[in-house]
Write a structure and sequence with these properties.
Blueprint: H1 2-8, E1 20-25, H2 28-35, H3 43-48, E2 52-57, H4 65-68, H5 73-80, H6 85-107, E3 113-115, H7 120-127, E4 135-140
Antiparallel strand pairs: 1-2, 2-4, 3-4
Helix pairs in contact: 1-6
Length: 156
Protein backbone atom coordinates (compact mmCIF):
# COMPACT_ATOMS: atom_id res chain seq x y z
CA UNK A 1 0.00 0.00 0.00
CA UNK A 2 2.86 2.34 0.80
CA UNK A 3 4.51 1.60 -2.55
CA UNK A 4 1.26 2.31 -4.41
CA UNK A 5 0.81 5.63 -2.60
CA UNK A 6 4.47 6.58 -3.05
CA UNK A 7 4.12 6.13 -6.82
CA UNK A 8 0.75 7.82 -7.27
CA UNK A 9 1.49 10.90 -5.17
CA UNK A 10 3.76 12.24 -7.92
CA UNK A 11 0.90 12.56 -10.41
CA UNK A 12 0.19 16.23 -11.16
CA UNK A 13 -3.03 18.03 -10.22
CA UNK A 14 -4.24 21.57 -10.96
CA UNK A 15 -2.23 24.03 -8.85
CA UNK A 16 -0.88 21.01 -6.97
CA UNK A 17 -4.23 20.93 -5.16
CA UNK A 18 -4.32 17.16 -4.49
CA UNK A 19 -7.95 17.01 -3.31
CA UNK A 20 -8.27 13.22 -3.10
CA UNK A 21 -8.48 11.68 0.36
CA UNK A 22 -7.85 7.95 0.66
CA UNK A 23 -9.24 5.50 3.18
CA UNK A 24 -7.56 2.11 3.02
CA UNK A 25 -10.06 -0.42 4.35
CA UNK A 26 -8.33 -3.61 5.54
CA UNK A 27 -10.08 -4.78 8.69
CA UNK A 28 -12.92 -7.30 8.65
CA UNK A 29 -15.15 -4.76 10.43
CA UNK A 30 -14.34 -2.02 7.93
CA UNK A 31 -14.93 -4.32 4.98
CA UNK A 32 -18.26 -5.45 6.45
CA UNK A 33 -19.32 -1.84 7.00
CA UNK A 34 -18.34 -0.92 3.44
CA UNK A 35 -19.95 -4.02 1.93
CA UNK A 36 -23.18 -3.08 3.70
CA UNK A 37 -23.15 0.18 1.73
CA UNK A 38 -22.35 -1.40 -1.63
CA UNK A 39 -24.46 -2.77 -4.46
CA UNK A 40 -25.28 -6.46 -4.06
CA UNK A 41 -22.84 -7.62 -6.76
CA UNK A 42 -19.97 -5.70 -5.16
CA UNK A 43 -20.39 -7.00 -1.60
CA UNK A 44 -18.52 -10.31 -2.01
CA UNK A 45 -15.67 -8.57 -3.85
CA UNK A 46 -15.18 -6.13 -0.98
CA UNK A 47 -15.30 -8.89 1.64
CA UNK A 48 -12.79 -11.06 -0.25
CA UNK A 49 -10.31 -8.30 -1.09
CA UNK A 50 -7.23 -7.78 1.06
CA UNK A 51 -7.78 -4.02 0.80
CA UNK A 52 -10.32 -1.60 -0.60
CA UNK A 53 -9.40 2.04 -1.18
CA UNK A 54 -12.14 4.63 -0.88
CA UNK A 55 -11.36 7.85 -2.68
CA UNK A 56 -13.12 10.95 -1.47
CA UNK A 57 -12.74 14.50 -2.72
CA UNK A 58 -11.98 17.07 -0.05
CA UNK A 59 -13.84 20.29 -0.81
CA UNK A 60 -11.60 22.11 1.67
CA UNK A 61 -8.44 21.15 -0.25
CA UNK A 62 -7.41 24.81 -0.66
CA UNK A 63 -6.58 24.95 3.06
CA UNK A 64 -3.56 22.77 2.27
CA UNK A 65 -2.22 25.02 -0.51
CA UNK A 66 0.24 26.92 1.73
CA UNK A 67 2.03 23.58 2.09
CA UNK A 68 1.46 22.29 -1.47
CA UNK A 69 1.87 25.51 -3.49
CA UNK A 70 3.57 28.04 -1.19
CA UNK A 71 4.53 30.54 -3.90
CA UNK A 72 0.93 31.07 -5.07
CA UNK A 73 -1.25 29.70 -2.26
CA UNK A 74 -3.11 32.90 -1.46
CA UNK A 75 -4.06 33.67 -5.07
CA UNK A 76 -5.16 30.09 -5.71
CA UNK A 77 -7.16 29.97 -2.47
CA UNK A 78 -9.08 33.02 -3.68
CA UNK A 79 -9.58 31.41 -7.08
CA UNK A 80 -10.92 28.15 -5.59
CA UNK A 81 -13.24 30.13 -3.30
CA UNK A 82 -15.23 31.25 -6.37
CA UNK A 83 -18.72 29.81 -6.88
CA UNK A 84 -18.50 26.13 -7.76
CA UNK A 85 -14.72 26.14 -8.24
CA UNK A 86 -13.84 23.91 -5.27
CA UNK A 87 -16.45 21.31 -6.27
CA UNK A 88 -15.47 21.04 -9.93
CA UNK A 89 -11.74 21.15 -9.14
CA UNK A 90 -12.04 18.50 -6.41
CA UNK A 91 -14.09 16.21 -8.65
CA UNK A 92 -11.77 16.52 -11.66
CA UNK A 93 -8.48 16.29 -9.80
CA UNK A 94 -9.59 13.75 -7.19
CA UNK A 95 -10.76 11.46 -9.99
CA UNK A 96 -7.43 12.01 -11.74
CA UNK A 97 -5.66 10.97 -8.54
CA UNK A 98 -7.83 7.84 -8.48
CA UNK A 99 -6.56 7.03 -11.97
CA UNK A 100 -2.99 7.56 -10.81
CA UNK A 101 -3.67 5.08 -8.01
CA UNK A 102 -4.87 2.46 -10.51
CA UNK A 103 -1.81 2.97 -12.70
CA UNK A 104 0.52 2.73 -9.68
CA UNK A 105 -1.14 -0.50 -8.52
CA UNK A 106 -0.90 -1.98 -12.00
CA UNK A 107 2.74 -0.87 -12.33
CA UNK A 108 3.48 -2.82 -9.16
CA UNK A 109 1.85 -5.90 -10.67
CA UNK A 110 -1.43 -5.81 -8.75
CA UNK A 111 -4.89 -6.46 -10.11
CA UNK A 112 -7.47 -3.88 -9.17
CA UNK A 113 -11.12 -3.36 -9.86
CA UNK A 114 -12.57 0.13 -9.87
CA UNK A 115 -16.24 0.18 -9.03
CA UNK A 116 -19.19 2.33 -8.28
CA UNK A 117 -22.59 1.26 -7.03
CA UNK A 118 -22.71 2.23 -3.38
CA UNK A 119 -24.49 4.56 -1.00
CA UNK A 120 -22.41 7.74 -1.37
CA UNK A 121 -23.87 9.50 1.67
CA UNK A 122 -23.50 6.35 3.77
CA UNK A 123 -19.83 5.95 2.81
CA UNK A 124 -19.21 9.64 3.56
CA UNK A 125 -20.76 9.30 7.01
CA UNK A 126 -19.09 5.99 7.87
CA UNK A 127 -15.56 6.63 6.61
CA UNK A 128 -14.84 10.37 6.38
CA UNK A 129 -14.72 12.18 9.70
CA UNK A 130 -12.84 15.46 9.18
CA UNK A 131 -14.84 17.01 6.37
CA UNK A 132 -18.00 16.27 4.48
CA UNK A 133 -16.12 14.71 1.58
CA UNK A 134 -18.39 13.67 -1.24
CA UNK A 135 -17.32 10.21 -2.33
CA UNK A 136 -17.51 10.07 -6.09
CA UNK A 137 -15.53 6.93 -6.76
CA UNK A 138 -13.92 4.13 -4.95
CA UNK A 139 -11.39 1.63 -6.15
CA UNK A 140 -11.54 -1.85 -4.95
CA UNK A 141 -9.63 -5.01 -4.35
CA UNK A 142 -6.14 -6.07 -4.97
CA UNK A 143 -6.82 -9.78 -4.91
CA UNK A 144 -3.59 -11.16 -6.22
CA UNK A 145 -0.48 -10.36 -8.13
CA UNK A 146 -1.21 -9.94 -11.79
CA UNK A 147 0.64 -11.96 -14.37
CA UNK A 148 1.06 -8.69 -16.26
CA UNK A 149 4.19 -6.71 -15.45
CA UNK A 150 4.95 -3.24 -16.76
CA UNK A 151 8.68 -3.88 -16.48
CA UNK A 152 11.05 -6.00 -14.48
CA UNK A 153 11.87 -2.95 -12.34
CA UNK A 154 8.23 -2.51 -11.33
CA UNK A 155 8.15 -5.83 -9.50
CA UNK A 156 8.21 -5.24 -5.74
Amino acid sequence: MREIYDLMKWGPTSANCSPARFVWVRSADGKAKLAGLAAELNKPKILKAPVTVIIGHDLDFAAELPKLLPHAAQAMQQYFAGPGMAEVTAMRNGTLQGAYLIVAARALGLDCGPMSGFDNAGVDKAFFFRHANPVELYLQHWLRRSSFRVSAQSSP
